[in-house]
Design goal:
about 220 residues, mainly alpha, DNA polymerase, domain 1, 3 domains, flat
């Protein structure tokens, strides 16, 4: 099933609409070959963004639509005015206490939503940019980074992972797999989701040189 995003008309009425299905024509009478091309085009359009990105996008747009309907008495979320966006980001920062990075993601989602429906993005208006500038200055925008895994820590972790069962002496395949994942992840700076999606066929070994890893999907795919 394609991901669907909330859509609201100028009166605030909501429905769901699949952007991918609006990208290409459909209807009776198309040649069979063209119908197949239409189907493939829809599949490619639906796969343009990672599932997690689509879920976040849908959640952000829904939150903005609810804010316009409930807090602003039915103010139009699409297209939204710069004043509406300024009030929304202020609510996110002042009332809800969200992180600056989360607010910026919400803005990006609403901006993409507007552009997909042929409207200029209210997030690019001077008023909204000034409010966001003030939020960053007052609250800061630096994200907390997780402590990196160092070589020393990695060595200790690997040494604690016994390849053989201490009772039977049998080699444990799961431990070998986990050791390999840790080493590949460390060498390639891969995310957990990227490592968990790896398959043996994604690795290509070159004797005396190393290995090429194919990452089929990443968090940074947008």
């Amino acid at each position: 099933m394609p991901e669907r995003v909330p859509y609201a008309d100028g009166n605030g009425r909501g429905e769901e609409r699949s952007d991918a299905r609006r990208l290409v024509p459909s209807g009776d009478g198309l040649p069979a070959r063209l119908e197949e091309t239409v189907r493939a085009a829809r599949e490619y359009a639906e796969a343009a963004r990672a599932p997690n990105t689509l879920r976040a996008y849908r959640s952000d747009v829904e939150d903005f639509s609810i804010y316009c309907r409930v807090e602003l008495g039915g103010s139009s979320p699409l297209p939204a005015s710069a004043e509406t966006m300024a009030l929304y980001v202020t609510d996110l920062a002042h009332e809800r206490g969200l992180k600056t990075s989360t607010i910026e993601r919400r803005l990006a989602s609403v901006s993409a939503w507007h552009k997909r429906h042929g409207h200029p993005s209210p997030t690019e208006e001077r008023l909204v940019r000034e409010v966001m500038k003030g939020i960053r200055r007052k609250r800061g925008s630096r994200q907390k980074q997780a402590a990196p895994l160092t070589v020393g820590v990695l060595k200790r972790v690997l040494s604690a992972m016994r390849e053989r069962d201490p009772k039977t002496g049998v080699v444990r395949a799961a431990v070998l797999r986990d050791r390999a994942l840790l080493l590949v992840g460390f060498a390639g700076s891969f995310r957990r989701s990227e490592l968990s999606a790896l398959r043996a066929s994604d690795l290509e070994f070159f004797e005396g040189c190393g290995v090429v890893v194919l990452v089929r999907a990443s968090k940074t795919d947008t």
